[in-house]
Write a structure and sequence with these properties.
With 84 residues, the protein is mainly alpha-helical. Helix content is 45%, strand content 7%. Helix 3 links the parallel strand 1 and strand 2 (49-51). The mean pLDDT is 76.
Length: 84
Amino acid sequence: MSAPDILRSAACGRFRSVALARDLGIAATAEGVETEQQFAWLRNERCAEGQGNYFGPPQTAAEIGRLFNRARVVSVRPKSVASM
């Protein structure tokens, strides 16, 4: 799918909103990313966040809980000014 095809697709409004938010300095998440071409277009538009079937199928709350439980949490604390 070419860039013009992406802009004519059903996702057009969502993706244009991401570009508008970027121009206004507002963080936005692109929803409904289904294809590699859509993802490439969003990256080109400097969209930092997206969700959709391109990244993986929907998950239940229990499945997400298991992912968090398996994740290793790392705490990063800045050095205090006194120790520098």
